[in-house]
DNA sequence: TGATGTCTGTTCGCTATCGCACCCACCATG
DNA sequence: CATGGTGGGTGCGATAGCGAACAGACATCA
């Protein structure tokens, strides 16, 4: 039952909210373009806006005291950035940077908090996503610890594909190594292995997924698990999303 | 300004809530004893109760599709188990098992949700803890990935000490290896190293921290960071906690 | 056409951790 | 006092990933 009409990008988290609570909320949003590499919020800093990606996607990166960094989450049109605001906290504890350029709906922190206060169904709907994000954080912690780079890379490429809505996207090995917390050489080796198995192609930063199913087999099952968890909690992204402004 | 009166154990998360919202809440709670190894909720199962440890503490364990397990959080009298309920979700995504026997305040899921609905300050106070927990999940993901077993073990012992309120507690290498996701032998080696440096003693499961400050030096800075984050968001545990029932 | 910068591939020695197997020390119990 | 269970120590080869350095391939721009 996959609906393939991508002519009008939408945010499925917003689309999953009840109609009556959505109109007023959308009126406070503005559509913005996000450029690759843009930093939307920094760890420890005040959150100025919440973002609901439409066709962009955003990495959540945690920074340790010794400076090491690791991507712990990725947010596309299935989610939102700025969940802390739902919890009544207006500082972020992670960096957020744009991995895939595109558009997003943006709302100021103040307006967002106001809407959350006013509409219980809105807050509850978004709270469910906070729960999903927490579960995914825990899952990712385990995955990062136990699984080899090749499987993690495959998983990451699938996550990106789902959010980019395309089998092709731009990503250098350098950047991937940063996301997965390994050396660039480690990515090159894993990517070479996936390439030899005919699953992907890449050249100078242009990655092309040739065999999505094969890639899913190469990935750890964490990919499926995270996806299933989302659908169990928030319903299938593709189950007749209601029409949405913008 | 450390208050050392431990005669009447209290849960500091509850103590941090405004007085007026607390009385009714506490009336719905009952004091229960938790025994070592008890499973309080299972991944994917319905949550029956929320728990606020008094002198017990609880491990949050994530399970991957391939069966590997990893502890991703530890909950003592600074927090609570069952945060999903605050988010309007009544299934847990992690296992929770009792690491340190003792007492806790328990409240049924239904009553908990009712109180959250009624009292905004209650919900907001607990929501801040959800934020802390999320931040700690992200931190732990990075720590687990980058830091060596010895530093992680030191951190874990300090976390446990804080929650057990004692420099001595019972924990076998076997169990520690399970928590940290490494071989038992890996723990033995790390523990031997810490022992040789005069930081800890242990024998047949009885662990004794000899030099807390030294152990903190041996641990990665993630320990301090997590602690600081808690205090920044929820205030110091030891800043004159108001008197509390039970 | 050449110069420079970006992206990818390869190699080498090194370390942390793994998996497995076995042994020893201590304790409780019959 | 014998026995079995639990907790801890040691040793060995295997391996995933690290750090560093270098080389080639391609693109852009002067």
Question: In terms of per-residue confidence, which ranges of chain A show pLDDT below 50 for 5 or more consecutive residues?
Answer: 1-7, 239-246
Q: Which strands sit side by side, in order, in the main sheet of chain A?
A: 2-6-4-5
**How many helix segments of chain A?**
9
Class based on secondary structure composition and strand pairing of chain A? alpha+beta
Measured as a percent range, the helix fraction of chain A is 40-55%
Give the amount of beta strand of chain A, in percent: 15-25%
Number of strands of chain A: 10
Distance between the termini of chain A: 23 Å
Multimeric status of the protein: homodimer
Arithmetic mean pLDDT of chain A: 91
Rg over CA atoms of chain A = 18 Å
Main interface by residue count: A-B, 45 and 45 residues
CA-based shape of chain A: globular
| SSE order of chain A, one letter for each helix or strand | HHEEEEEEEHHHEHHEEHH
Describe the main β-sheet of chain A briefly: 4 strands, antiparallel
């Amino acid at each position: 039952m996959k609906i393939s009409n991508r002519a009008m990008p939408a945010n499925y988290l917003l689309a999953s909210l009840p109609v009556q609570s959505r109109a007023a909320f959308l009126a406070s949003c503005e559509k913005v373009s996000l450029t690759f590499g843009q930093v939307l919020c920094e760890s420890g800093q005040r959150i100025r806006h919440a973002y609901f990606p439409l066709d962009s996607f955003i990495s959540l990166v945690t920074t340790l005291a010794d400076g090491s960094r690791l991507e712990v989450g990725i947010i596309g049109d299935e989610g939102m950035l700025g969940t802390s605001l739902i919890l009544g906290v207006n500082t972020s504890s992670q960096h957020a940077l744009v991995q895939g350029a595109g558009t997003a709906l943006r709302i100021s922190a103040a307006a967002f908090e106001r809407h959350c206060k006013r509409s219980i169904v809105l807050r509850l709907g978004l709270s469910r996503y906070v729960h999903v994000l927490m579960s995914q954080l825990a899952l990712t912690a385990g995955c990062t610890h136990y699984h080899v780079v090749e499987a993690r890379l495959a998983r990451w490429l699938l996550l990106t594909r789902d959010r980019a809505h395309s089998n092709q996207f731009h990503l250098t090995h350098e950047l991937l190594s940063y996301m997965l917390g390994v050396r660039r050489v480690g990515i090159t080796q894993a990517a070479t292995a996936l390439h030899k198995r005919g699953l992907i192609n890449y050249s100078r930063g242009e990655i092309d997924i040739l065999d999505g199913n094969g890639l899913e087999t190469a990935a750890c099952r964490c990919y499926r698990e995270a996806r299933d968890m989302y659908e169990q909690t928030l319903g299938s992204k593709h189950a007749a999303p209601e029409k949405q402004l913008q």
